Request: fold
Amino acid sequence: MPELKIVVSIKQVPDTDDLRIDPVTNNLVREGVPAVVNPPDLHAIEEAVRLKERYGGKTIVLTMGPPQAESALREALAMGIDEAYLITDRAMAGADTWATSYTIAKAIQKLGGADLIIFGRRAVDGETEQVGPQTGKWLGLPVIGYVSEIKSVEKDKIVVVRTTEFDEEVIEAPLPAVITILETANKPRQPDIMSLIRAKTAKVTWWNKDDIKAEPDKIGLAGSPTKVIKVQPPPKTRKAEIIDGKKDVEKAAKWFLDKVFEALKEEQSTLKEYVKPKPKVKVNSEVWVYIDHIGDKPNRASYEIMSEARRIADLMDTSLSAAIVGGEGSKALIDEAFEYGADKVYFAEVKGFDRYDNEVYTRALSKLIKKYKPEAVFFPGTRNARELASITAIEVNTGLIADCTNFDVDDKGVLLSTRPDFGGKEMSTIICPKHRPIMVTVRAGVFMPLPRMPGRKGEVVREEIDDLFTRLKVLDYKLIEKRNVLTEADIVVGVGRGIKSPENIKMAEELASLLGGVVGVSKPLADMGWYPKDRQVGQTGTTIRPKVYIALGISGAVQHLVGIMSSKKIGAINLDPSAPIFENCDFGVVGDIFEIVPKMIEFLKNKQVS
Ligand SMILES: Cc1cc2nc3c(=O)[nH]c(=O)nc-3n(C[C@H](O)[C@H](O)[C@H](O)COP(=O)(O)OP(=O)(O)OC[C@H]3O[C@@H](n4cnc5c(N)ncnc54)[C@H](O)[C@@H]3O)c2cc1C
Reply:
């Protein structure tokens, strides 16, 4: 087999652990914060080095960034990468993912291409998951996102396992190809001291915009279709009610349980009623929602965002349409889309493709967008829809704003999309001034669907797609049967270091079982092997959206909070009244979990609560 040429593209990010909020200005303090290799990129580097060890060949790392990003490249060299390139130029500053992926693609072309290009799944500062697939699109290469395992690399093809929230596919693709790698794929190595010393003085080649022949109007802030117009601290969405549980343990335990049951009663699965807002402007083209699905099974997140897209369409005095790409088996989705609020449905029929294939679906959706020219397209934040949106944005030449949690329309009719950065420490409001459609992906679990209106009908626009060519071959497919229990549970009892020993977790398990919930843990507990890793909640664990999250002896570090932010209600019990979890919960008891939890268990067993 000819030797492989592998390029890894990485990013340097501020160490989110060290980012603090200035208590006076409420702004993020960036000065003096150390920069590190974006942690998910370490897995991309590791995978490249392992492939070289397995098959031979050459590994190259590159990054686009300021001069100090050179240190990230040296870390990659220390891990075993052979060559490093820093793509740096003042004109590249402020690039969004469109301009960043263009720049990286130009650098890869300057390198003479590669057999395999590997990206980390996401960058922890922005969480867009866009740059990898978009670079692949610029290069015209097959893209496989969310790779959990590389099975084999042969002459001119690669076989990988691609894992989404719902399913797992074994995919074969021709080389060259672009992949993004999941954090579960491997454990990045720690370089030894000799490698670190060698890497310190190793050659790093610097290239500017002229070296890579980048067109000046496609790079940096000037070349970016999207613009950040405002950065602000996150709004306080939870008003915590905290009581002292040290004096009267019984009272505190009862109060806490009442709060849990109150929260469960309040819970609803759809918006109670929709109040149509007064239009702010009149926009002539439509607002669309892309319906993500597997066969005839829609992803709930698609209908969640339909309610928000409906509100935006009403503010713009235009209609709301659903866009569906699928085969014969996906046609049932058309009626459902009307019942969840769409006025019109565009159905791009791709015969034989009831499931997502990024090449076929991108072409089909791009054809719809180019022909019918919507004002905005909302995508649910699932893995498939994020990948599809990323590649489509390059195909239709527009900006894509990732992972939004809030929207508004200003008096001039501009769509304001707000998204969390740095794991929610900062919120950025972003616009797409000149390109259309405005494309956004929306975080799942943030909005609630409109109540279903059975029998509601609308206009169907059918578009038959003839070009069904794909370079991706699915060798094996399975739905993930045993989905992560944490993401399915209505109640999650989170346990932190306050639990003191692994035996004590039984107490939390008993509480969870009496409430009909499951136990999740903070990272240190998973790291110490006290509980399975797949029960870790947080930035490097699972993101959960239960009806109620109960934090027992958890301090509320930002990396933990990121994973629980979308819980409907959060309750906390902690000895320390100044623990950050109390700033981020709905109800809390300052007290000892070893006093309060046994009391709660006693009440539940004796059915002394409603
Ligand atoms: C790159 C990176 C990724 C990370 N990813 C994650 C992640 O995914 N998930 C995650 O959880 N963390 C993550 N972390 C770690 C995170 O920063 C925190 O270190 C971790 O969440 C702390 O866990 P804890 O709250 O259990 O422990 P601690 O911070 O030690 O808190 C223990 C708490 O228990 C309380 N306590 C003690 N005894 C009692 C008692 N008897 N009764 C009541 N309260 C008591 C204490 O007051 C304290 O607040 C990550 C860190 C990094 C750098």
Remarks:
- The pocket of flavin-adenine dinucleotide is lined by residues 17, 39, 496-498, 522-524, 536-541, 553-555, 557, 559-560, 563, 573-576, 579, 592-594 (CB under 6 Å).
- Residues 4-224 form a domain with the Rossmann fold fold (CATH 3.40.50.620).
- The CA atoms of residues 304 and 448 lie 5 Å apart.
- The two ends are 69 Å apart (CA to CA).
